[in-house]
Amino acid sequence: MVEIFKTNVEINTDANAIVSILQRQFPDCKINFDLEDCDRILRIEGGRFNPKQIIEHLNLQGYICVPLE
């Protein structure tokens, strides 16, 4: 399973913190950001996860996160 999200995360330290938290919740997934991309991509690959949980987590942290189509 691969999901790609558009976010408004801009700072590497914020992205690293988000990845660390998500990695603990979804240890079987490969998770990374591409902040160089204009859509500030969050990519999650592998394992089972619910995309709504990812979106909710980022929203609770004050970030926008929507599936990229």
Q: Can you tell me about this structure?
A:
The chain has 69 residues and is α+β, with helices and mostly antiparallel strands. The protein has a single domain (2-67), classed as 2-Layer Sandwich (Alpha-Beta Plaits), CATH 3.30.70.100. The chain has helices at residues 12-25, 51-60; strands at residues 2-7, 30-34, 41-45, 65-67.
Please provide the ordered H/E string of secondary-structure elements. EHEEHE
Percent helix range:
25-40%
Specify the number of helices: 2
Largest sheet: 4 strands, antiparallel
How many domains comprise the coordinates? Answer: 1
CATH topology: Alpha-Beta Plaits
Cα-based radius of gyration, to the nearest Å: 11 Å
Short description:
With 69 residues, the chain is an alpha+beta fold. It is built from 2 helices and 4 strands, in the order E-H-E-E-H-E. It has a 4-stranded antiparallel beta sheet, covered by helices on one side.
Task: Please give a handful of descriptors for the protein shown.
69 residues; 35% helix; 2 helices; single chain; Alpha-Beta Plaits; alpha+beta; 4-stranded antiparallel β-sheet
Topology, pairings included?
Blueprint: E1 2-7, H1 12-25, E2 30-34, E3 41-45, H2 51-60, E4 65-67
Antiparallel strand pairs: 1-3, 1-4, 2-3
Protein name: Copper chaperone CopZ
